[in-house]
Every structure is written in structure tokens, then in C-alpha cells.
């Protein structure tokens, strides 16, 4: 028998590329977050890195309803729009997922690109086009028009997350429920929806975060009274490099991490001892 020894050079190059490029990518992703959080604790008067001392003054200023009343309104509007966008996405994404799971693969391949098209279309282009169409049919920019725009643009995220889970569901489970005498509503409520729940929750998280952070669609479809948090943050940076922007970023980053950890805990498969 001949001993075949693998050439170590390609292996070393592969490891160097994977670990080296992976480390650089991780640093590139994490470094801005760390810098933004660090600047939010500065005792200085403006955004600057490294920060001048340590202080919680900007978080206190952000909580102050007198100084940051406009920011509170903007945050409330953003949370309202994001929550309504999640509900709107549920109304079409979940039925679409269940319906597509019952269709033939060829039909799904033909229809799915239309459902996922908003993910490919630049949201800035869609926001402008939606504004033109809304004016044409007599609708003015408003909070509700912004919600509809967010549902159209980000709703496919929920469909995609739910459809991935739906593909792993055994169709015989629903058939067995029907054979046992359950109505379609009972089968939907007791069999299909519980199995789809991980995908629905993952999609809801994606829609909520994307809607909360969106600028382009809100810029065109929100009216002057509907100030949203991302646009307010841009305005503060343009006006005075207000450090409260870093404090807002710190709060949003913290909330996102908490939600991700909770979601991972809830959606993680249970392990039997």
C-alpha cells in the first residue's frame, strides 16, 4: 500500500484565508458598534473618539422629556410603524406561506420571485415610486401610508423565514389531522401554526428591526407630523453632532441584543436530559 500524504500548503492557505478574512470581517462588524457605544458615555459636548471622560449625562438627557421630547415622539412613531408593519406582514406572509406549501414546485418557482421582488428592488426607488402612485390616486404621505410601504418592502422577510420552516414540515401531519376528523381551522390552529411559529417569530423580528431602522421608505411616505427615529437621528447629526445620537444607538443596540438572546432562548430546540 502506498502512503498518500496530503499536501499541507493548500490546507494552510485555506485556514489562513478563512481565519484571517473571518477575523477581519468580525472586527469590521464589531468595531463600529463598540465605538458608537463608547462615544455615548463621553462627558464631552460633541461626538468625538476617543471620548472625553466617562459620563451618563447623554443618556439622562435622552430620557429627559423636556430636552428630548421630539426624540420621544419620533421613537414612539417608529415603534408604532414597526409594530403595525409586523402585523401587516403576518396578514399576508403566513397565508402565502401555507398556500405556497400546498402548491406544486413548478408553480412555486414561478410565483415566488414576485413575492420576493421587494427584497431586490432598492427601497429608495420603491419609496419614490410609491409616493408618485399615492399622489396619483389621491393619498397623501401619512403614518398609515408609511406602514403600508414597510409591509410591502419588509413583509417578504417574514414570508421567507416562514417558508423555510414550512419546507421542513411533513405534509402527512396535516393529512392525519384531517383524517382523524379535525376541521381545517382546527388543523390550522393545532398543527400548522404551531409548527410554523419559529419561522413566524424569526420573520417578525426581521421585519420589526428593518422597519425600525428604515430611512428611505419613511423619507418619502411619512408626513411632516410623523417624525421617525432614524430621520431624527440624521437631523441631529447634521445640526450639531449631538451625542444623544450615540446614546440612541447604544439603546437600540442593547435592545436588539436582548431580543436576539431571548429569541434564541425561546426558539432553541428543547434538549432532553
TrEMBL record:
Q: Which GO terms describe its cellular component?
A: plasma membrane
Q: What is its main location?
A: membrane
Q: Where in the cell is it found?
A: Cell inner membrane; Cell membrane
CDD domains per the UniProt record, alphabetical? TM_PBP2 (cd06261)
Q: What topology in the membrane does the UniProt record assign? A: Multi-pass membrane protein
Key words, A-Z: Cell inner membrane, Cell membrane, Membrane, Transmembrane, Transmembrane helix, Transport
Metal-binding in keyword set: no
Q: Tell whether Transport is among the UniProt keywords.
A: yes
InterPro entries from the xrefs? MetI-like, MetI-like_sf
Enumerate the spans annotated as ABC transmembrane type-1 domain: 75-263
Can you tell me where the transmembrane regions are? 12-41, 81-101, 113-137, 143-162, 191-212, 243-263
One Pfam family recorded for the sequence:
BPD_transp_1
Q: Which GO terms describe its biological process?
A: transmembrane transport
User: What's this protein's family per the entry?
Assistant: Belongs to the binding-protein-dependent transport system permease family.
PANTHER family for the chain: INNER MEMBRANE ABC TRANSPORTER PERMEASE PROTEIN YDCV (PTHR43357)
Protein's name in the database:
ABC transporter permease subunit
Tell me which species this is from.
Answer: Agrobacterium vitis
